[in-house]
């Protein structure tokens, strides 16, 4: 029996102390993706393109493209296109991307096209925030949705006005970076936590054998390295796989008022308290009564009389005792005894926090 109890205790402690790698909780400062955006045309649609009378920019873009290809349209020509759609193209330029490397692009309709299925994106330059072209996108758009319509009825599954091109953009300009130019690297933590920053520094110092890492604040750790870029890559390859035990998170409850979701972590606990909750409903019944004259020739008039009945009903309201709960299972069991809906549970948790019997931080999204 003692051996079994010790084993269960060890299992509970191991579950509380979660072990991850440093790469799971940090990222190197300056090593990040960059957003690219471009405007282009998708052609080859089966009559599901933009209605050019309502989207004049599609016609203008088509005329400009044809003029660049040496085709001049007569003045006053009104182009009626059904197989062309104006789209916005977005992509993520990864860190250390080299010329010739391909990246995925997302194509989204910006007009009134019904579907982009079967379309081909024409050559589209993708620019960064500095208005410089970093990639060129082109290819067949893959749509994940489907739809059909006939006889005034239609059915649609998923989205038809947005798609993706795998490897649809080719990198033409490389980003300048200062990786390896300094004698230190900054590791940014995934969450601001002084305990986590200190633990990351301790693990790195234990591996290196000297004080190579110093926590700068709750969100970053500085690591001293040699100025050689190759040695920094080797060092990061070793450090990122070092195991680290996460500190215990603070008790927190997150409430999404729009969806009615209530999420709490395992550190949440409550003190003994009494809760009374009930539903108050007010019903207003408005009916119209028509009064006719007794005899047709009496000279009376038809009178319409409104009758309004108001009733008030209150359900529930019994005082429920909630015992002290030291674990998440006890908290869930205690709250379930109240029989409250998610919407009512939000109000109860707010009131419990105000009363000082909720040992957790309450965040409302």
Automatic annotation (TrEMBL):
<dbReference type="GO" id="GO:0005198">
    <property type="term" value="F:structural molecule activity"/>
</dbReference>
<dbReference type="InterPro" id="IPR001782">
    <property type="entry name" value="Flag_FlgI"/>
</dbReference>
<dbReference type="Pfam" id="PF02119">
    <property type="entry name" value="FlgI"/>
</dbReference>
<feature type="signal peptide">
    <location>
        <begin position="1"/>
        <end position="17"/>
    </location>
</feature>
<keyword id="KW-0966">Cell projection</keyword>
<comment type="function">
    <text>Assembles around the rod to form the L-ring and probably protects the motor/basal body from shearing forces during rotation.</text>
</comment>
<keyword id="KW-0732">Signal</keyword>
<keyword id="KW-0969">Cilium</keyword>
<dbReference type="GO" id="GO:0071973">
    <property type="term" value="P:bacterial-type flagellum-dependent cell motility"/>
</dbReference>
<comment type="subunit">
    <text>The basal body constitutes a major portion of the flagellar organelle and consists of four rings (L,P,S, and M) mounted on a central rod.</text>
</comment>
<dbReference type="GO" id="GO:0030288">
    <property type="term" value="C:outer membrane-bounded periplasmic space"/>
</dbReference>
<comment type="similarity">
    <text>Belongs to the FlgI family.</text>
</comment>
<protein>
    <recommendedName>
        <fullName>Flagellar P-ring protein</fullName>
    </recommendedName>
</protein>
<keyword id="KW-0282">Flagellum</keyword>
<keyword id="KW-0975">Bacterial flagellum</keyword>
<dbReference type="GO" id="GO:0009428">
    <property type="term" value="C:bacterial-type flagellum basal body, distal rod, P ring"/>
</dbReference>
